[in-house]
Design goal:
Blueprint: E1 4-7, E2 10-12, E3 15-17, E4 22-23, E5 27-28, E6 33-35, E7 38-41, E8 46-49, H1 57-66, E9 74-76, H2 82-85, H3 88-94, E10 99-102, H4 104-114, E11 121-123, E12 129-131, E13 136-141, E14 151-155, E15 160-164, H5 181-196, H6 200-211, E16 217-220, H7 230-240, E17 245-252, H8 258-272, E18 277-281, H9 287-294, E19 297-303, E20 306-307, E21 310-311, H10 313-325, E22 331-338, H11 344-351, E23 358-359, E24 363-366, H12 371-390
Parallel strand pairs: 8-9, 9-10, 10-11, 15-16, 17-18, 17-19, 19-22, 22-23, 22-24
Antiparallel strand pairs: 1-2, 2-7, 3-6, 4-5, 7-8, 12-13, 13-14, 14-15, 20-21
Helix pairs in contact: 5-7, 5-9, 6-7, 8-12
The protein binds MU-OXO-diiron.
Length: about 400
Amino acid sequence: MAAREIVPGVHAVGAIDWDRRLFDELIPLPEGTTYNSYLVRGSEKTALIDTVDPTKTAELMANLDGLGVEKIDYIISSHAEQDHSGSIPAMLERFGDAKVVTNQKCRDFLIDLLHIPGDRFAVIGDGETLELGDKTLEFIIAPWVHWPETMLTYLQEDRVLFPCDLFGSHYATSSLYVPDENAVYESAKRYYAEIMMPFRSSIKGHLEKLASRDIDLIAPSHGPVYNRPALITDAYRDWTGDAVKNMVVLPYVSMHGSTQTMVDHFVGALMARGIPVQPFNLTKTDIGDLAKALVDAATVVIGSPTVIFGPHPQAVYAAYLANLLRPKTRYATVIGSYGWGGKTVDTVKDMLGRLKVEFLEPVYVRGLPKDEDFAALDRLADEIAKKHQEAGIVPA
Ligand code: FEO
C-alpha cells in the first residue's frame, strides 16, 4: 500500500490486513481490517498519529520512505492496544529524537505492554494542544472507547478528527474514503457491537462533547475515512441511544430436534404477530453477526436444551457474550427442552445479570413439545407483542 493524502500535509500511512480473520483470538473479521496511521506535517514539526499492528511495521516504514520522511518529532499514541501501538518501539528506534505524546494512563500502559522507556514520553492532558507550526493538534481525553486510556486527536486547522478505535470498522478496502456507505455502515455496526457497545454510556458523553465541533473528516484507525462524518456520528447516536427496535434475537442450539421444533414454531408465531425475528443457530453462527443483531433488538430469547444438568455450552457462550456486551435489550427469556431435570432456565437467567431486562415467562418443556407447549410459545409471542406495543416500538 502507498501513502495517500487526506488534506494537504496529512497522509494516511497505515497498512491493510486483507487476510486477517480473527481479532483478539475472538472476533471474526470477515472483511479483514486496516491499521490506520496518519502523518501530519506542519511547517515546523511532524507528528505520526498512532502506528500499526507489529506484523505490519515494514509496511508503515515503507510508506514513510515513500514520502521521504527523515524526521518525526512526535508519535501520538491514542490507545495502547498493540494493533495501534505495536510499532512504536520500532519507530522510536528509527526516529531517535521522537517523543511519544499521550496521556498519563496510556503512558503507563505503554510502559507495561511494550517496555517503552519512561523518558521517551511527553504527557498531555485533556484539551491541551501541540503546535506543529501551521497545524495544531488538540487532544480530547475520551476514556472507555474501549480501554480506560483512550483519547482522540483533533487537527484544528483542517477540522479532521482522529478518533482511533472509536467510529472504526473492520473493513479492508483500497479506498481511502468510504466506498459504499451501506457496506461500511453494516461493518461499523458490527464493530460497535463487538467492541464499543459495553461502553454505550461513555460514548454518549463523548458524542455530546464532539457535537459542538466542526468536523469535515473523521479518520479512524480501522476502516476507511469518513468524508461525510454524519454517516457514522448519526449511526452512533442511534446505536447508543435508548430506543430499541421491534426485533427478537433468538440464539439457539438443539441436540435431538426438540428445541429446534420449538424454535421453528416460535419464529412462525412471532412472524404471525408482525414481530421481526433473527434466529441464530449457534453451531453455525458467526458471533459478530449475533453481536450486531443485539445492538438494538428489544428482546432476546435463548433457546437451549439441557445437557446433563444445565444449558448447552453453546447457549452458555451466547448468554455470556450477551452479558459481556451489555446491549440495551429490554426483555429476555429462555425456551427449550430437557430430558430429566436440571437448572437451565435459572442458570441462563443468572448469566444475564448485567442486562437491565425484564425476564419473561420461559417455555421449558420435557422431551418433544406437545400441543400445550406450542400454545405456551404462542402465549410468549403474545406477551412479547404486548411488551413491544407498550414500549411504543410497534403501532398499537
Ligand atoms: Fe484497534 Fe482497541 O484496538
